[in-house]
Automatic annotation (TrEMBL):
Domain of life: Bacteria
Record's protein name: Uncharacterized protein
Transmembrane portions of the chain: 27-50
Keywords, sorted A to Z: Membrane, Transmembrane, Transmembrane helix
């Protein structure tokens, strides 16, 4: 096969792949919603503890507690 024929074939495949850019929208929506749900759940469980750790750390750095 000649080089120009191979190049045209490769170019045709690249163009065909570029046109099929719709993606998997329902899948991405599901991933986004599940990630948001995990963040909310973790924040609800660990938020108060992390807040206390942060407050205690700041107090120690500023010298408010021994």
């Amino acid at each position: 096969m000649a080089a120009h024929v191979r190049a045209a074939t490769v170019r045709g495949r690249v163009v065909a792949l570029a046109r099929d850019d719709r993606g998997d929208v329902p899948g991405w929506v599901l991933v986004t919603l599940m990630t948001a749900g995990l963040v909310i759940a973790l924040w609800a469980l660990a938020g108060p503890a992390l807040g206390r750790v942060f407050t205690e750390s700041i107090q120690r750095v500023t010298g408010e507690i021994g």
